[in-house]
Amino acid sequence: MSKNAIVTGATSGIGEATAIALAEIGYNLIITGRRVERLRHLKKSLESEFGVQVETLCFDVRDKHQCAANLENLPNGFERIDVLVNNAGLAAGLEHIDQGDLHDWDAMIDTNVKGVLYVTRIISRKMIEAGGGHIVNIGSIAGTETYENGAVYCASKHAMHALSQGMHIDFLRHGIRVTEIRPGMVETEFSLVRFHGNKEKADSVYTGLEPLTGEDIADTIVWAINQPPHVNISEIVVMPNQQANAYYNYKK
Ligand code: NDP
Ligand code: 8X3
């Protein structure tokens, strides 16, 4: 029987690569994000390339009403959700706390923390009813480390780390597996978003080293969900070979 997955934030980067990787192994998909044209384009290409069913839900995970309106009643064929990938997220800005922008803080905390909770509450209830499932949370090395200028993003990813552990505990009795993946640098639209569209600044983050790709993280997700049902991969840290942690990297 084919399986069903939801990937939040599938319009670019890790989420898009994950949608492709899951379609490739036969998952029917619900892909979400706010950029409707990108969702439509991805749906079309996944359906034609892999012959799977793909539905798009265009909404903002920060809005609890939009989450409910889109996720409570899922499209036909998605009565059971086998895998939820909580991927939608962002960093906004890079400065000391006294210089922080309140809009940036709201965006990070509302997306990376509250958005994950809104989505998980609704989908976990469906998983409980169905007798199981697998939740994959995209955390970050910023979930266990804190670096200068990144306090609020790090706080939001520390929250993701705590939520992943809490989900595992709370869902033990329901047979729902929970995996947190904590990547280092992945070249996506992440830095472009963090620097509010400044491409030069964004590109400079990756100059001199070979960062991870969205596909690297998608491969890791596929490996974790393909483990036998009695195995739960709780946490995975994935780093570029030229980066040791948030502070040390080797640029050529
Ligand atoms: P991208 O910017 O390429 O992708 C982010 C995705 O999240 C987009 O699809 C975006 O869709 C979606 N998204 C953002 N805000 C919202 C929102 N309010 N509502 C719905 N969807 C939203 O970055 P990445 O692929 O790198 O980021 C994916 C995840 O990986 C994030 O949680 C990030 O924190 C994490 N991460 C990234 C790392 C990196 O170095 N790139 C390292 C470690 C973790 P849209 O704009 O269409 O709404
Ligand atoms: C993204 C990686 O090091 O920019 O989560 O925080 S980092």
Concise synopsis of the structure shown:
Helix content is 43%, strand content 15%. With 252 residues, it is an alpha/beta fold.
The pLDDT mean sits at: 98
Strand-and-helix sequence, N→C?
A: EHEHEHEHEHEHHHE
Quaternary structure classification: single chain
State the end-to-end CA separation.
48 Å
Number of β-strand runs: 7
Question: What report would you give on this structure?
Answer:
By secondary structure, the chain is of the alpha/beta class. The termini are far apart. Helix 1 packs parallel to helix 2, helix 1 crosses helix 8 and helix 4 packs parallel to helix 5. The model has no long low-confidence stretch (mean pLDDT 98). Strands 3-2-1-4-5-6-7 form a seven-stranded parallel beta sheet, with helices on both faces. NADPH dihydro-nicotinamide-adenine-dinucleotide phosphate binds next to helix 1 and helix 6.
Topology, pairings included?
Layout: E1 4-7, H1 13-24, E2 28-33, H2 36-50, E3 54-58, H3 64-71, E4 83-86, H4 102-130, E5 133-138, H5 151-171, E6 176-183, H6 190-194, H7 199-204, H8 214-225, E7 235-238
Parallel strand pairs: 1-2, 1-4, 2-3, 4-5, 5-6, 6-7
2-hydroxyethylsulfonic acid binds at residues 140-142, 150, 185, 246.
